[in-house]
Amino acid sequence: MAATEFLISVTGLILVYSLFTIGLNIKFGFTGLIDFGHVLYFMIGAYVTTVLTAPTRISLYEGIGGYDLPGLLASTVPMGGLLGWLLGVAGGTLIAVIIATLVGLVTIQLREDYLAIASLGIAVIAHTIVNNVRWLFNGTFGIRTVYAPLQALAPISLGSITANLVVFGGLSLIVAGYPAYRAITQARTLSTSEIGLTTALFAVFLVPAIIGFTITPTAAVVMGILSLVGAAVLLKQLTSVGADPIPVLALLAIEAVVVIYFGSAAIDGGPIRVLLNALWLYSPTATPKGGMTYDRLFLVVTATFLVAGYWLANALAQSPYGRVLVAVREDEEVAKALGKETFLFKIESYAIGSAMAAVAGALYAVRFGYIDPTLFGLLVTFYAYAAILMGGVANVKGSVIGMTVFWTLFTGTRFLADLFPPAVATQLASIRIILIGLIIIVIVYYRPDGLLGQQDRDMEVRDS
Amino acid sequence: MVGTGVLNATVNGIITGSVIALGAVSLSILYSIAEVPNFAHGAMITIGAYLVFVINKPSVFLLVSDVPGFAFWLGIVFALLGGGALGAVIELAMFRHFRRKGGDLITKLIATMGLALVLRNVVVLFAGGESQSYETPLIISNFYDFYLATDGVGLRILQRSGGEVVRLAQWGYSWGLMAGIITVGAIAAVATHRLYVRREINARFITGKAVAITTFGAVVLLGLALGRGAFVGGATLYATRVIASLKHGLIIATSIAAMAFLSAFLTFTKTGKAMRASADNLGLAEVSGINTDRVQLVVWILAGVLTALAGGLFGWFANIHPELGFSLLLPIFAAVILGGISSPTGAVIGSYVIGLTMSLGVYFAPFDASPYRTAFAFVVLLVLLLVKPEGLREGY
To answer: What is the ipTM score, two decimals?
Structure first.
């Protein structure tokens, strides 16, 4: 079961960060605004939503609020709890938009480098204030009570094991089915040699990982270095063959799911465990008759928000509005000469991107169940930059794919820490951040538009 | 007992300004000659501060124990060499390629941010995240108490020794003597200024104003040294204390010396002239036969040396931790933009403005504003960007 719980936890985080990344991509990718303080709006969304939805008395809390919107509405309206929470999210987003507009009015006309330093500075100062002012949001102590929407419903049980299994199991298959279908369609476009190279690439990481885990830290390090070398060689081969990155990634994902997620289940618990892993939204231990746990329910909530954000960003990008944003990025003077009020476009794009970060922040708070300033360090912004560069600049799909790949690597390397004594945990954490830095430098050098490049938005010309 | 006041905050501001200036001058030459808005500048300062430990206190690094350290100044020398090497590596391994590829400003900006993540975490990797300090000879701070009395000005120097405050020296000047010294200083300044400007002795490098200010300072100091009398006896109108030590004096002096050296280098040497030409117009410099690759390498080496010096000096009077450089990054950028990004002189002026703003801002704030030191620097920058986006000065 651990594999399913872990998958749900990691997926939840990836979805939240993907929404955050899409927000940054609207600013940076589409409009060309370098915001090194994107995490500011993430923080605002998280704090304001939490304060608006938290109960009026929170233990050990000396900041403003809580305003208990869900509690107020729950007594008057059906589904008032959820509605109250949604109002809270809207409130957090609104505050983020207001602050983003103010920041934008001051900084947005600056040159790229000035904008970068100004946004970084504003984020640093805001973080210092939240960290030091106790009466605002309780300073370093943070907020230990975060309202979790729909928690009263969970665990959901439909009465009998069969009903639970059929409904939630069926739902899992449908939800997982679509990405699986897309991945398989993509992977089928690969040629035999490309499939071979990709599988070798996967094996190069997997085999040493298994061997390393079972032996010693030293062996793991040696194996790790070997696999990095092997991966570099194979990647070079793949590029020289001219393989498309997306099908390769799709195949890697399929292999990872089959081998790690299902393979380990088959070894540990046989076919029943495999089936339970496939029906991941169903939890046999949620109630005595099985059902759906809150983690799973909230994952669905998060996914809904991401889909909405994804759709919105794509619609924006394909609209004439989005084309103006790209024009502003490419050459603001030309856009101006064509009569576009570029200043407004930039401010609006900045506000929309920040709003998405704020919504992501609200989800992030629920997911952790507490918030404090350490969750909103400046580094979080650079997770999103790394994801955009791995995905693609001005590429909405790329933001999600990039964050998935980035977070898988980032979380995967975290497991290496288990092999080493806890004393060197700081060192291992630093190695992972060094890798983020190197990834950013290497990609920005070879592919300034990101690994997947910009989304192809050319219209097809139909013969009639 | 005399309390510290605005004068003490000013002295602190000048010390901070001196350290910022080293970072700001090097950021400014990177900006104008290498055209790199270097967000890794703070991380380079951190590396510089930790390089001193390699010689001074090797036990700071993990897996190293029982290795004796050497003198602090040897550590600084090593840091300067190491910093220069780091600068060279950054240019050769990264920015030379970015330049060849014609990367735009955004690309370089993001690359420097990646570099900052790498450098800062290399420090954590080898030295951990804890605060550290150098092994330096103990320098006890002195209290300088200034008295304004009805009959003149007095100075009393005190030192804390074994729980008690001991008086080291005291003397005073009558108001008449003070007026006389200042008048003589002013006359001497005007005279040398006239003489200097008429002779046109290389007016480009050292301006007439600088000569006049130096003369004034020298004459006044000489007068104060010669005219020392008995401590003032009249009723005290105002008294204020400045806490300072030889360490602070050395930091300010080293910083000024380093900037004078850089200024002389840019003005008099052939490489310096080539650097200024490249800053003016890189293409034109290249056609006139200047080896621009070599110029860029020198710029990065200089930047590495200066940031390492800034790190070593800053680490001397503050705690050293991996975030040390980042805490200086915003003030440095503020100083450089304030001074007009391509002017090293402007960057120095900007640094002192920022240093003083931070120190006096914390002093005058009605609440405990010490966590917001950087914020004061930043507010100045934002206001300036709004009012005068091109900075205070432009060009060399």
So the answer is: 0.84
